[in-house]
Amino acid sequence: MAKKPAAVEGTTKVVGIFGDPVDHSLSPRMHNAAFAELELDYVYVPLRANRRNLKEAVRSMRALGIVGANVTVPFKQDALKLAQRLTPTAKAIGAVNTLYFDDKRLVGDNTDGVGFVDALAAHGLRARKKRVLIIGAGGSARAVLHGLLEAGAADVVVANRTLSRAAQLARDLSRRDSRVRAARLDLLDDFDFLETRQLVVNCTPVGLKGETFLDYDVDSTPRDCLHFDLAYAEKPTPFLAMAASRKRPTVDGRYMLLFQGAAAFKRFTGRRAPLAVMAKALGIKLPG
Fold first, then answer.
1. Fewest Cβ atoms nearer than 10 Å: which of 53, 127, 243, 253?
2. Is the dihedral of CA 250, 254, 256, 262 positive or negative?
3. Is residue 182 classed as helix, strand or coil in its secondary structure?
């Protein structure tokens, strides 16, 4: 039986998440379940901000005694400029999703990339030497690409509707690394290319509003090609439903949320996150 959250007292340490909107976030549910499990005197709350007041809101963390915060869309790049110190990972990705205090300085970090790679590993796929297709070139794709390169992926192609944006992403994160190249979306219908992929990652929201997913020939991928969608919903996303219908293994975005959250939890508390408890709060199970 899940433990009940402790009462909020004057001693309770506050952690939150900045976003707009933020009411849909599953992070409070996940982190508060973890605090209760470890009997930590913490509470995690949503912190809605906007671009006009984000700077003021982040700087108020110290005054209000907020010990840490996650940052979600659309503020991850804005937060980069608000931290007093950036980790090498945040600098490389060019975005911040976690803020915490270290020696009284506000540190900006990014746990999305390692969260993605850890989610893959939990499903039995190591990124090392893998051939990957990333669909989309937005902020989440930056974190995924960084995580894959750090983990030793052999070949990563970033496909995007606007080729120049994919090319810019590849340049920003790979420093002209020969393992990375940009392509247009017509590659999603290229049999010769798709049959070489071992992992396909959707970093776009396409399909979540009921529209048809992109023209993607999932049948051209190997039978064991893992399909990972960073988005998640109550039902499988159109991308994952398509892959599952063709008997390809799938992973939804709650697993990345779980593992990036576990890394952030360690930054906030200094304790190892109770993964099984956090997974249950998200409505998923740890593989195996």
1. 53
2. negative
3. strand
Peptide bond into 21 cis (omega under 30): yes
Element (H, E) at 133: strand 131-135
The residue type at 120:
L
Maximum Cα–Cα distance for the chain, whole Å? 62
Sorted by where each starts, the structural domains of the chain and their CATH numbers stand as 13-111+255-282 (3.40.50.10860), 124-248 (3.40.50.720)
What pLDDT, in 10s, does the model give residues 158-190? Answer: 999 999 999 999 999 877 677 899 999 999 999
Candidates 76, 91, 104, 247; catalytic one: 76
* 3 in catalytic set: no
Helix ranges (DSSP H) in 123-197: 139-150, 163-174, 191-194
pLDDT tier at 9 (50, 70, 90 boundaries)?
confident
